[in-house]
Amino acid sequence: MNTRRIIVTGAGSGIGAATATRLRADGASVFGVDQKGAVDLTIDVTEPGASEAIITDATDALGGIEGVAACAGISGAQPLDGHDDAFWDRVMAVNVTAVFRLIRAATPALASSGRGRIVTIGSVMSSFGASGLVAYAASKHAVLGMTRALAAELGLHGITVNCVQPGAIDTPMTAPAFTADPAYGEFWRQKAPLGRLGTPEDVADVIAFLLSDDARFVSGHGIFVDGAAMARP
Hints:
It is built from 7 helices and 7 strands; from the N terminus they run βαββαβαβαβαααβ.
């Protein structure tokens, strides 16, 4: 990792922050992006021109890029009855469109590096559904499909593309749901045979592997990080 230069979006907290920390510990040069927090660039990834600004600033700061970890994302539940367009549009804008735009903007630099790596963040809801999560599940399923299609296309340029699919992870984004309904958190603890919620570091370690040279022949995959929760009925 000590020669890799990597962009991490959503680096202000949660999985993105843990990923940036892990990559730096491994010796990588990291350009962190978020709307808030101690990051290198503060920006809303959905803004017009945001992706181009991220690539330009990261390239100027690092001298080039070899990897992208697209960790920025939002969640939230809303039942279909009364589900409003604004909520749907925001979830899709952050979780899908911004990821697509960032990858599109980063591809020339990643291709020229000769060892480009892209990691997207899906969810176990990429492959399963849950009541009230129609927008979130749809967005994460789109991310998984995008990942597989891009792996086929960008592999021709030496770029690997993989999707990490976290299960129930204790992050600032999920904490309000666990706090509001302790039984919800306990359900996921019990569902995972490993007997606990995941941590951001659990996910970051897998992302770091996929960005490394060790994963040079791994591409086009969705990888569950869920403590085997979804293997149990």
